[in-house]
């Protein structure tokens, strides 16, 4: 019987259980509206959270009580070569740089994506483009519990410049690299992790790579291609900075967000969450599914340093980063991506990105407002 339940059925049952002081002792809240469920959680103030990024702790603290805790996080970073490049502080500036650097390109032409091609950064479809920029814009877009139409239309206007410049389309299978496992939900589900199938190693030698990385600062950021990988003992330095939102600041999306249900076995639940912060599980490939297709990076910088050291030993070379990498991650805003709002925003954006039957950003904003109005009202 349970196999026939829809996601909506499961959430309805969970909500009824919580209202009746029942349900699991520990809940993993990502994919849900976290603020809505934190009212059912017990404070986690007894946890030892030394070293956890302060922005994560602050984001899940209500009236000085820590109500939930992410165990992994995905930083959205912009990597670029230092020589001949400029600091990127906005989506508009990035679009200016890209569109002025070459004539209109067609990503379906393999020649444009060779090491000697003209593309300034690697992107292959407009869903991917949306995934990469949306998290940094989400808070401003939905500030105050309603759609900010001006922010949405600006987001669409600038990303549309990139869509048209690279002649982006929806995801398609190409050279056997992209193979969706669930095509029915391909265009709607928010997955903060972009895997090896999203960024094939042959294209990492391009000057710009705008990514949600599969591992912090490793292959995607300082692997410049086979020539350097195999014929050089020292990689060129990169400058890492965040994908900017409308205020210029970057974002990271927490994953594996754990909370302990009030009224359950609270002591056992707290102990379980504490174990999830342990060195063994923060550094475990198996527990979170690995860094290329798992749930993100550790939330404690000490363990990120350990993983970088491990990667250096594996590659038998020093990994050069020009900026203070710890400070880069520490300064990122913690953004909770509401999956329903993500889905509806992507669907609205697609109507603008499609070359056929394209609608204006203003019309898409009106449609998105209507599609989310009741949902947002129920959350108040």
Question: Could you please describe the fold and organization of this structure?
Answer:
- By secondary structure, the chain is of the alpha+beta class.
- 40% of the residues lie in helices and 11% in strands.
- The protein is built from 15 helices and ten strands.
- Strands 1, 4, 9 and 10 form a four-stranded mixed β-sheet that branches. A four-stranded mixed β-sheet has the order 6-7-5-8. A two-stranded antiparallel ribbon has the order 2-3.
- Strand 2 and strand 3 form a beta hairpin.
- The longest helix has 19 residues.
- It is globular.
- About 19% of the residues have low confidence.
Please render the helix and strand layout as text.
Elements: H1 7-19, E1 26-28, H2 34-38, H3 54-59, E2 61-62, E3 65-66, E4 69-75, E5 77-81, H4 91-101, E6 121-122, H5 126-141, H6 149-165, E7 208-211, H7 219-222, H8 226-231, E8 238-242, E9 251-260, H9 266-276, H10 279-282, H11 285-288, H12 301-315, H13 325-330, E10 333-334, H14 339-353, H15 361-379
Tell me, what's the shape? globular
How helical, in percent, are the residues?
A: 40-55%
Look at the structure and give the mean pLDDT: 76
Provide the structure class: alpha+beta
Distance between the termini: 33 Å
> Ranges with pLDDT <50 over ≥5 residues?
112-116, 173-188, 193-236, 286-293
- Indicate the radius of gyration in whole angstroms: 21 Å
**Main beta sheet:** 4 strands, mixed
Overall number of strands: 10
Q: What series of H and E elements makes up the topology?
A: HEHHEEEEHEHHEHHEEHHHHHEHH
Name the beta content range. Answer: 5-15%
Number of helix segments? 15
